């Protein structure tokens, strides 16, 4: 029974990690595509694309190097919190409906919390590696 619960938890965290990583990769590529197709600011689109690709790839490196996974998840959480602040301010200024602003803020806050969960999972994996590492032979 406990093994089944732990198996479900492990699979859910893996799905969450892949989902957020692909979200960032998709976000970066769509942003670049939007900048290229509308003759917008290509430099800003490229910077956001590189940021999205870097954060997404750092989140996925958790399986090989948990420290980089923790850094990527922390950056993702900070990114979502910055997006909440900027977009909420811009949408309130432009007079969007409060229901839509509330839904966007809740969505981004939930994604930031999910990234914090992934950061904690990477930190837990780092501690587990330190504990199970064999002692050096003298």
UniProtKB/TrEMBL annotation:
Keywords: Membrane, Transmembrane, Transmembrane helix
Transmembrane segments: 15-36, 42-61, 68-89, 101-120
Protein name: Uncharacterized protein
Organism, scientific name: Belliella pelovolcani
Lineage of origin: Bacteria, Pseudomonadati, Bacteroidota, Cytophagia, Cytophagales
């Amino acid at each position: 029974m406990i093994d089944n619960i732990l198996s479900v938890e492990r699979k859910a965290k893996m799905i969450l990690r892949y989902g957020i990583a692909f979200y960032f990769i998709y976000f970066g590529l769509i942003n670049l595509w939007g900048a290229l197709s509308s003759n917008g600011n290509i430099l800003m689109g490229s910077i956001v694309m590189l940021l999205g690709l870097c954060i997404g790839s750092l989140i996925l490196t958790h399986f090989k190097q948990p420290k980089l996974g923790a850094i990527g998840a922390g950056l993702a959480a900070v990114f979502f919190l910055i997006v909440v602040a900027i977009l909420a301010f811009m949408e309130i200024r432009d007079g969007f409906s409060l229901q839509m602003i509330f839904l966007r803020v809740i969505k981004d806050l939930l994604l930031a919390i999910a990234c914090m969960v992934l950061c904690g999972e990477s930190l837990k994996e780092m501690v587990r590696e330190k504990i199970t590492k064999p002692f050096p032979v003298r």
